[in-house]
Target: Protein-glutamine gamma-glutamyltransferase 2
Amino acid sequence: FADLVLETWDLQCERNGREHRTAEMGCQQLVVRRGQPFTITLHFSGRAYEEGVDKLAFNVETGPCPIETSGTRSHFTVTDFPEESGWSAVVQQQDGDSLSISLCSPPNARVGRYSLTLETSTDYQGCSYHIGHFVLLFNAWHPEDTVYLREEDERCEYVLSQQGLIYQGSRSYITSIPWNFGQFEDDVLSICLELLDTNPKFLRDQNRDCSRRNDPVYIGRVVSAMVNCNDEDRGVLAGRWDNHYEDGMSPMAWIGSVDILKRWKNFGCQPVKYGQCWVFAAVACTVMRCLGIPSRVVTNYNSAHDTNGNLIIDRYLSETGEEERRSNDMIWNFHCWVESWMARPDLAPGYDGWQALDPTPQEKSEGVFCCGPAPVRAIKEGDLQLKYDIPFVFAEVNADVVYWVVKPDGTQKKSTHPSVVGKNISTKSVGRDSREDITHTYKYPEGSEKEREVFMKAELEKRSLGTEDEGLHLKIKVSEGANNGCDFDVFAVINNNTDTERVCRLMLCARTASYNGTVGPQCGLKDLLNVTLEPRAEKRVPLRILYESYGENLTQDNLIKVVALLTEYQTGDVIVAMRDVYVQNPEIKIRILGEPMQNRKLVAEVSLLNPLAAPLSQCMFVVEGTGLTDGQQIKELEEPVEPQAEAKARLDFVPRQAGLHKLMVDFESDKLMGVKGYRNVIIAPQP
Model:
């Protein structure tokens, strides 16, 4: 027999991409999911393959030093019956000189970039051919993969959807911003693989790191650490919270992960400036979805940052409502992290499913700034000793807040304050642009018997709250529509639920604030020394907040913190109430002109009304959307926009993909920044 000579081959990137749901990663490279067969075609010259005479074998290798014992190298022959475990190759069909072969990885294979080599041998004569590279991803569609997710609509949302919503604002006024995850856009996959190869664990022991890349728990921990740069580890983002972002991008200006990941890569893996929690979480979500692990961004309102781990957050206020910083414990208005779906074979049964991963650098875990994966189920049950970092996340959703009012002579009076931490935990609904509340997955209903049990198990005291009925009660309400550029009212609402008249002092104070709890200058104050409360009656006291007082100091988080202190003269008791008022930006209007069709020019008109009393200069619109625009489009306006006038721009682009896509818009200017809007656009397929 003459030697079997391989002439050409075809990795069938397009067909395999369709079957493995990776087609959007481009047809230039083969990207497949583990545990699922993929087909390649071999063309021989001179003569055809003959079974029984010719032996065919494949080598697959990943990582810098592949060895079989660590699962980074595998050698397997073409057979009729694939083995139960390990890689396999089976002849599918033979057509003259061409041969179709189906290859399949085990569902627990290492993910990453592989090289593929074919070895042919006839009568001891052998040849070796390097056929090319392919990338292997996790497979949420395979029942034996540790990231298997049963429902197809959830797999579409959490693995395949490239766009989403992230919840912000405040607990009493939840807002959302659109986000372009873009995990299948050009270069994103190679950047995600480079991120794995830049992580310190890889640099320390490349072979060990690559051998652990079959485990989503390990990958999640690496990604959580690599998205921030706090460990001098060439991480993706630098965090900053002080409202000085001139030497980079303001965290509020981003509308997608792709821009950030490309900047990181193009600047030699230097950290991109700047991120805050939702940016860290969104970039981590992009990387995890790209690698095939189902993931979502979640937002926790009134999120506690408990540095000493005692689950009590002490806050100190002066009699005028000014906060004194005495500890690093903070309450963030909201905090975002990622949840990723995976089995936890490293733990006792019962902890599979959603795991919390927090890439925002807050505390070190095993010496590195990362957090998780923490099983959400373990957080709910108070199982604080399990891996990883459960006490930290447990505190974020469960800590208690105690307010101490410090008198001029230095004495402190403890104030009652109902449970405020860990509210309205939110994520985007599956398949719809609405909010899903997932608080019940993190904690039992407040005041329930089950909640008390969890706290006892966690060896923590849960303060019991006094009955709501008796005594004095204080709340803060907001008049309809606190709009940027306008004056608005907040009200202290006091209820006297007793049978006697009470005389009190009421202090109302408003300050501009950032979402991480820090406050700026005062923008409203009222001090009433003599408030008489009739028995069984309600009193409303207004405080007018003027644009001329808050406009200069409003941060890009658009928050104003209102504090009310009610001191009862007779007993000396103090009641504290707080509210974070979200000041609404104007709406961006998006009009689509013409009939949206694949590969045909489309025009979008974007506009926004200037609500302020001063002109806006340096105005620009930034527009992006996976499948619609090719990267970002930036339109700068030449003229300033006068008060009550419209900022307007037209953009044209050629949508490359049919189906439903989000066109996302960000507006920037000197006085109004980080304004977001989006519009769903349905692109008809090319006829």
Notes: The chain has a mean pLDDT of 90.
